[in-house]
Amino acid sequence: MAKCRICGNAISAFMTFGRMPLANGFLTPDQFKDEYFFELAPAFCDSCHTVQLVDQPAPEAMFHGEYAFFSQTSKAMAAHFERFANDTMARRLGKTDPFVVELGSNDGIMLRHFAKAGIRHLGIEPSANVAEAARGQGVNTRCAFFGAETAREIMAEYGQADIIQAANVMCHIPDLNSVAEGVALLLKPDGFLIFEDPYLGDVIRKTSYDQIYDEHVYVFSALSVARIFGSHGLELVAVEPQVTHGGSMRYVIGRKGRHVVEASVAAAMADERALGLDKAATYDQFRRNCEASKDALMAALNDLAAKGKRVVGYGATSKSTTVTQYCGITPKHVEFISDTTPTKQGKCSPGAHIPVKPYDAFASSYPDVALLFAWNHAQEIFAKEEGFKASGGRWLVYVPEVTFIP
């Protein structure tokens, strides 16, 4: 039996999504024979209430010099991170020569706003190619994984940090105890750790099971975050819901006793208990909901194929790997996936091996139906694709339920 990555309690998977490749492992046909697979199986710890993967590929296999995700490909996310940076500068930042560290800073999409404001900063990014892109934006970036050792190195060179920030990163890091230890070392006495990630409450409410993939070793709740960082002399002092990624939560953490704990924390925990996020039975029901969603999506795709309709995927997202593999979607169901990321174009999707083509392939010959893998950017996409709608095209979505739009 596996052990909880946080508290060491015995855990077992509440479901399996089956044989799964690397979510961002886009590849060419000559690489098919050597493709890596593992079992994607989430578990719930009834001791610390942390939802986590039982097994996860090595970090070096997922985050490397050819990492396929660049944050700046989404205008909506760029605007979100600008707001995040400005909010931190206005509400949380110290006044005397402040120093900001961002974990998993990607291409500098958020930290560049601190750089432009002349604030001392350092991005920690393990993928060499995106770290280099950040430096090109004028963002001071170190290519490394963050933990206690890296925290000591940063302290020796820069001193302690007023703010440690992260966005859609903490859920990627298997050894969170080392991260929490590093934060406890690096953070100034009155500093803040501020991070946001996809929120477990939204995953459960919406059956958004595609938030579970190799990089997301955790799906957090306020209950689990308080437990994870609480054992390292830190406490959760505020939570702030976000609409990004189909529902995220921003967590604000400080040293115990140094800040007023806002009412939002108790309110979030009460809501989570009412939703059953602290009970194993909730995750058994989630498994049944996932199975029902899979059956409904495949019924829709098989019906479209039987009618000879052209279906194209929209957005070669990390999340789409979970959907295609778990549901059994193949090139027989989806002709290709349209994506604007150059490093994915001309390759095939992980596992399912559906061709990935540039956006022009979608726009120049609209399909009958677009399967919206990038559903968390639906508002931005629908506004952009009025031409597809006017052509008679329909969207097929699967979160929170399988349906056609319009």
Describe the 3D structure.
It is a single chain. The protein is of the alpha/beta class and 406 residues long. It has two domains: 1-53 and 308-406, 3-Layer(aba) Sandwich (Rossmann fold); 61-278, Vaccinia Virus protein VP39 (Rossmann fold, 3-Layer(aba) Sandwich). It is 35% helix and 21% strand. The protein contains 14 helices and 20 strands. The chain has a seven-stranded mixed sheet. Strands 17-16-15-18-19-20 form a six-stranded mixed sheet. β19 (394-397) and β20 (403-405) form a beta hairpin. α5 runs parallel beside α6 (176-186). The longest helix has 27 residues, at 280-306. The chain starts with a strand and ends with a strand. One of its GO terms (molecular function) is methyltransferase activity. It comes from Paramagnetospirillum marisnigri.
Sequence-ordered SSE layout with sheet pairings:
Blueprint: E1 2-3, E2 10-11, E3 19-21, E4 37-39, E5 42-44, E6 51-53, H1 59-62, H2 75-91, E7 99-103, H3 111-116, E8 120-124, H4 128-136, E9 141-142, H5 148-158, E10 161-167, H6 176-186, E11 187-198, H7 200-206, E12 218-219, H8 222-230, E13 234-242, E14 248-255, H9 263-275, H10 280-306, E15 311-314, H11 318-327, E16 337-338, E17 356-357, H12 359-363, E18 369-372, H13 378-384, H14 386-390, E19 394-397, E20 403-405
Helix pairs in contact: 5-6
Mean pLDDT score? 93
Biggest pleated sheet = 7 strands, mixed
Task: Just name the CATH architecture of the largest domain.
Answer: 3-Layer(aba) Sandwich
Q: Measured on Cα atoms, how large is the radius of gyration?
A: 21 Å
Work out the count of structural domains: 2
Q: Name the CATH superfamily assignment of the largest domain.
A: Vaccinia Virus protein VP39
| CATH topology category name of the largest domain | Rossmann fold
Strand content: 15-25%
Q: What is the highest CATH level, the class of the largest domain?
A: Alpha Beta
- The count of DSSP E runs of length 2 or more, i.e. the number of strands, is 20
Q: Please bin the fraction of helical residues.
A: 25-40%
| Largest beta sheet: strand ordering | 9-8-7-10-11-14-13
Per DSSP, the total helix count is 14
Contiguous runs where pLDDT drops below 50 for at least 5 residues: none
Overall structural class, as computed from helix and strand content, comes to: alpha/beta
What best-fitting shape do the alpha-carbon axes yield? globular
Terminal CA distance reads: 47 Å
InterPro entries: Methyltransf_Zn-bd_dom_put, Methyltransf_Zn-bd_dom_put_sf, MeTrfase_14, SAM-dependent_MTases_sf
GO molecular function: methyltransferase activity
Protein name: SAM-dependent methyltransferase
Keywords: Methyltransferase, Transferase
